[in-house]
Amino acid sequence: MILKGKNAIVTGASRGIGKEVSLVLANQGANIILVDIDESALQATAKEIETKGVKTLCVTADVCQMADGEKIASETQKTFGRIDILVNNAGITRDNLILRMKEDEWDKVLAVNLKGIFNCTKAVARYMLKQRAGKIVNIASIIGIGGNAGQSNYAASKGGAIAFTKSAAKEFASRNINVNAVAPGFIQTAMTDNLKEEVRKEMQSRIPLTRLGTVQDVANAVLFLVSPAADYVTGHTIVVDGGLAM
Ligand code: NAP
């Protein structure tokens, strides 16, 4: 129970990687503040997490909105009295080739994946700076490191997330706040379930560890970064991709 009594905010918590991160942190004793735009899915996930014997708070919010970032932080502070952990996980894809990409596809992906991280970090950091303690983890992607045809918007948002992570780490380091990123590779979730079978097979054939990643693989890296074991790690990006980007 290395996170007993800690309070952890997880965005995009109702399913996929965010749900698993919430479960893994709850398994270690953390109370979970679940954030998502889908209220009914949030409630169902919260019920599952409460079976671990921790407290939960559901906050229906759109991370693109700065006011929602502030709502997430203030409701957490009001309910639990402090914020120890923020996992910026909410993310979307709107894939298209550059010449076909609509302005809205570009704007929406940057708004959720990058501005969302800024909004939540800014709101939560206010409290963490006063506490002189905190752990922030941003979920990036290997696409943000290596790029991908048809995903220029997503790659820009995730590359931006990695650069933001380093800047925030430098800004907050003197106040004992660690900011790191996790860059997953090809993980089995709803986001990747939509891919055509031949695309999936081709991707899998390029993964040295010969399998797709699981949500647990990603959640375990997040757990390390928010735990005391990573107290001396900041500004870093852990790649969880079975060796794909190597
Ligand atoms: P997912 O299954 O689609 O889950 C994303 C969650 O974020 C959903 O619950 C979604 O809510 C929520 N969300 C979307 N927009 C939001 C907003 N504006 N405000 C609040 N919540 C919002 O995705 P995933 O595969 O678990 O991915 C999680 C993170 O990992 C993302 O940042 C993604 O880019 C990253 N990642 C995933 C993979 C992969 O292979 N799956 C690889 C690399 C990186 P709704 O259910 O209402 O849409």
Succession of helices and strands: EHEHEHEHEHHEHHHE
Mind telling me the C-alpha Rg?
Answer: 17 Å
CATH topology label: Rossmann fold
Helix content: 40-55%
CATH superfamily: NAD(P)-binding Rossmann-like Domain
Strand content: 15-25%
Strand adjacency order, main sheet: 3-2-1-4-5-6-7
Structural domain count: 1
Q: State the end-to-end CA separation.
A: 33 Å
Please, what is the average pLDDT? 97
The total of beta strands comes to 7
Write a structural description.
The protein is α/β, with parallel strands linked by helices. It has one domain (7-240): Rossmann fold, CATH 3.40.50.720. The protein is built from nine helices and seven strands. It has helices spanning 16-27, 39-50, 66-80, 103-131, 143-146, 152-172, 190-193, 197-205, 215-226; strands spanning 7-11, 31-36, 56-60, 85-88, 134-139, 177-184, 237-240. The protein has a seven-stranded parallel beta sheet with strand order 3-2-1-4-5-6-7, with helices on both faces. Strand 2, helix 2 (39-50) and strand 3 (56-60) form a beta-alpha-beta unit. Helix 1 packs parallel to helix 2. The longest helix has 29 residues, at 103-131. The two termini are 33 Å apart. The model has no long low-confidence stretch (mean pLDDT 97). NADP nicotinamide-adenine-dinucleotide phosphate (NAP) binds next to helix 1, strand 2, helix 4 and helix 7.
Topology (SSEs and partners):
Elements: E1 7-11, H1 16-27, E2 31-36, H2 39-50, E3 56-60, H3 66-80, E4 85-88, H4 103-131, E5 134-139, H5 143-146, H6 152-172, E6 177-184, H7 190-193, H8 197-205, H9 215-226, E7 237-240
Parallel strand pairs: 1-2, 1-4, 2-3, 4-5, 5-6, 6-7
NADP nicotinamide-adenine-dinucleotide phosphate is lined by residues 11-12, 14-18, 35-38, 41, 62-64, 89-92, 112, 116, 139, 141, 184, 186-187, 189-192.
